[in-house]
Amino acid sequence: MKKYKSQVTQFLEQLKAQKPHLEQSQREGRALLWDKTPQNPEEMRRTKLARIKQRSYVYSNE
Fold first, then answer.
1. What is the C-alpha separation between 9 and 49, in angstroms, rounded?
2. pLDDT at 7 (0 to 100)
3. pLDDT digits (tens, 9 = 90+) for 8-61
4. Cβ distance 15 to 9 under 8 Å?
5. Is 34 in contact with 28 (CB distance < 8 Å)?
6. Helices (H), the chain
7. What's the CA dihedral at 40, 45, 48, 50 to 10 degrees?
8. Whole-angstrom Cα distance, residue 48 to residue 42?
9. Which residue ranges are recorded for the region named Disordered (predicted)?
10. Are 42 and 50 in contact (CB under 8 A)?
11. pTM above threshold 0.70
């Protein structure tokens, strides 16, 4: 029995066959924008100390 493949799936398979480097390029782009690199502990400590505590009710005039 033949399994059904949607037009979208067929298109993606064809695109990946034509451009084999596409998936690696997508991973590199994702890593550039979303994956976080390990931070320096000293930098994390300075960031935490520099943070200003927000008041419980931000619209008060006090």
1. 50
2. 96
3. 999 999 999 999 999 999 998 888 887 776 778 898 898 888 988 877 777 766
4. no
5. no
6. 7-18, 22-33, 41-50
7. -100
8. 10
9. 19-45
10. no
11. no
